[in-house]
Amino acid sequence: MKLARLTAAAGLLAGLLFAPGLRADTLDRAGLVQELCGDAGAMGRAGAALVATAASGSAQDRAFAAPLARAVIDRKLGCDDAGAVLDEGGLDAVSRTPRAAAGTPRSPLLSLKNRPVFELADAAFALRGAPDIAQRAAALKTLERRPAQIPEGLLDTAAAAESDAGLKEQIDTLAQTAALNASDPAARIRAIGRVAETPSRRALTRIAALASDPVYAANPEFRRAVDAATARIERGIALGDTLATLYNGLSFASILFMAAIGLAIIFGLMGVINLAQGELIMIGAYVTWLVQQGLRVAAPALLDWYLVLAIPVAFLATAAIGIALEALLLRHLYKRPLMSLLATWAVSLFLVNLVRVIFGTQNMQFETPFYVSGGVPVIGDFIFTWNRMFAIAFAVVTLALTWGVVRRTPLGLNIRAVTQNRDMAACIGIPTRRVDMMAFGFGSGLAGLAGLALSPIYSVNPQMGQNFIIDSFMVVVLGGVGTIAGTVVAALGIGQINVLIEPLWGAVAAKVIVLLMIIGFLQWRPEGLFAVKGRRK
Amino acid sequence: MIRLGRIGPIVHLTALILMVALALPALSGTPLEISRYLANAIGQLAAFAVLAISLDLIWGYLGILSLGHGLFFALGGYVMAMYLLKHSFVVTGTVPDFLQFMGWKDFPFYWAGFDFFPYALAVATAVTLLISGIFGYVSFRSRVGGVYFAIITQALVYVAMLLMFRNDTGFGGNNGMTGFSVLFGWQMGTSSMITALAVASLVVLALVLLLCRQLVRSRFGALMLATRDDETRLRTLGYETLRLKLLVWCLSALIAMVAGMLYVPQVGIINPRVLSPELSLEIAVWVAIGGRGHLVGAVIGALLVNAVKFWLSSAAPEIWPFILSGLIVLVVLVFPNGLMDLAKFRLTRPMGPKRMAEEMEEARP
């Protein structure tokens, strides 16, 4: 007993003597263990040494020290006459060779002041060394509670070694927070510069919080750095917002374009406004859903590709409906365009209620394949999302396809001829009735494709068509009858104006203003933007 | 097409309507008294018939299809609702629901004076004339017509609906306005009030019918038909069709407004759904089914379709849309002049030579 007490006293003395010499790079292992078994002050120093080791120690030192921190927290370290024993496996704390405890082992108790230090050290070891992601994430959570205590360099090296992208990002964020709250102004200024490199609203709140820091008033250099960073982030956010608006406008425009292009072709050709166009869009989305459900049963491996596989199905299904509609109904109404409005409205009423009876009124559930999920953050809060990109890319492909059909195929030639002069086209032997039918089928098929492109972005229900029909009418009226270019320009214009006005005065005001602009525009060019030159009918 | 000499049906119908109007109060108290529900339904049907006449005037006689007539109907309805609420507030002190809902202490400033009916009527007339006048002028001036006009009017009513769905406009928002208790100082909801409203609607219907008959039978009516059949020729002959179209358009809007003012006290509610494009399209369907270009046809179409709708909406609401779409297809394909064809048993094959010849003649740019 006496001997044990003597050894402990000697150890304490040695610890006190060696304490200044404790260096992260040359870890004094025996001294560390001795201090761990010492009083509260010694343990505090040992904790600091552990933290330093975790931050900048060599791999071997970290491997040596990590179990010690854990063992002290768990009270699994047995201090005995010959030093200390790790309870787990009965290893000597210094040499890591098996040995039995000499005398009665005593496990040191952490004081309230020391506990956080050891927890910090333990979390720091876990963040850098734990094999399991969950453990590393848990360690990061612990570190996040005390950003100011995290040793400099720890998070940077941990982030560099981190393999998981999500966790790496979290570590980087914490590193910034820690650096911003560091005690050294130079380090803080460097951190401010780094934060400003990736502008976002979150970064702005973080930097703005520094303006109320006492250092901001005291240190002019710090103040300049904060102000410069704020300005830079604000510029970045403004740029990001502008890009986001343009991007949203572009995606809205591409949906408008897809909804309107079929309408424009049919209107140009036959003078018929198809009020059921919105319902054809809805049918296209439902066909997409059916394809998804079919794949789920028949070929689950291909489920991710349902959006691609549904393209021909949606096109053909809606085209078939369109051809049937033309052959059974509209064929008899060409000379009475106003009656054809009512007839197509009857069809739209019928289709909405049919779908409602079959599928119900609830929104359809769609899988989100990997190619339409997530996005790439660009600048500020602007995220280049893939589902919107899908709609835009789809619209571009549709545009190319439509242009190709109208300009490069015999059917397109016939469509253009009949659009220009139906009687003359009939006289030179173009089968105008069949051209009408094919064109109507083509226009309806394009509506089906619009429905497909919408399904990852909008909610799909029986009412969805009605939300688009009036906007797409406006596109046709503005763009002019039956011109692809007019439809593109009008869709872009209306899409962008809508998105520009919406944040200022709301969606309703955007619609009102667009309508008033179109009525005003018709005063100037009653035939639309890209009217075919010729005699006014 | 329209033979100007055919005057019989309108007079007969007017007489019939006035007889019903007389019978309603006369029968009260006798065993033949009709139920409150039926009296209310008759009154609503009369309001719809007035609305159908307003559209027939512009579509059947002028060839301009408006798919936004619900706008003027709703305008009349909203002003009437404002009068009723303000009047009820002044008489009984009941605070309207929407004010409480919005947490407002008082009516917005533009509600001032609405407890005085002549003022409300004047406001309704002025706003209707302003909107229809400006919209008609800019549209007809740039010769927007046919399908274009139909679409833009539909967009107009759609935008108005979106606007009225907003809660901060002071017009009740998406819940609309309801809870009317007093009309001209009399308690609402009583049997005698329901009968009185129905009689008033029938009398207004008869008056509108006679007024429009005089109009379409006059020289002005002949010009309307000429504009419908060949506007270019009429312009070439030196007639100013812009003024003519504008006049008829504004008159039509006013009649629709009156229909709205009759309708609201009878249903006891107005909300933005009245402004939905569907209702405006339905008005065109009534006229098409009844036979456009015939005032009697419009009235019968409105009565018939709505009677079936009233009956089905309690019996089998699911199948009503299917029946309606079937009726429309039947009318546009087989009876191009609606029930007027049926009356004359003039079934024509859709693409038969007779029908083709008619359509060629009828075809207007």
Summarize the structure.
The complex is a heterodimer of chains A (537) and B (365). Chain A is mainly α.
Topology:
The complex is a heterodimer of chains A (537) and B (365).
Chain A lengths: L1 H17 L10 H8 L3 H17 L2 H16 L2 E4 L2 E4 L4 E2 L21 H16 L3 H12 L9 H8 L3 H16 L4 H13 L3 H10 L3 H5 L1 H51 L6 H22 L7 H23 L8 H23 L15 E5 L2 E4 H23 L1 H11 L1 H6 L4 H23 L9 H16 L4 H22 L1 H18 L13
Helix pairs in contact in A: 1-2, 2-3, 3-4, 3-5, 4-5, 5-6, 6-8, 7-8, 8-9, 9-12, 10-12, 12-16, 12-19, 12-20, 12-21, 13-14, 13-15, 13-19, 13-20, 14-19, 16-17, 16-19, 17-19, 20-21, 21-22
Chain B lengths: L7 H20 L8 H24 L10 H23 L4 H6 L14 H25 L4 H20 L11 E2 L3 E2 L2 E2 L3 H27 L1 H11 L1 H6 L4 H27 L1 E2 L6 H14 L4 H21 L4 H14 L5 H5 L9 H10 L3
Antiparallel strand pairs in B: 1-4, 2-3
Helix pairs in contact in B: 1-7, 2-7, 2-10, 2-11, 2-12, 3-5, 3-10, 5-10, 7-8, 7-10, 8-10, 11-12
Walk me through what this model shows.
The complex is a heterodimer of chains A (537) and B (365). Chain A is mainly alpha-helical. Chain A contains 22 helices and 5 strands. In chain A, the strands form 2 sheets. Chain A has a 3-stranded antiparallel beta sheet. A two-stranded antiparallel ribbon of chain A has the order 4-5. The relative contact order of chain A is 0.08. Chain B has 365 residues and is mainly α. In chain B, the strands form 2 sheets. Chain B has a two-stranded antiparallel ribbon. In chain B, strands 2-3 form a two-stranded antiparallel ribbon. The longest helix of chain B is centred in the middle third of the chain and has 27 residues. Chain B starts with 7 loop residues before the first helix and ends with a helix. The N terminus of chain B is likely disordered. At the A-B interface, α15, α20 and α22 of A face α5, α6, α11, α13 and α15 of B.
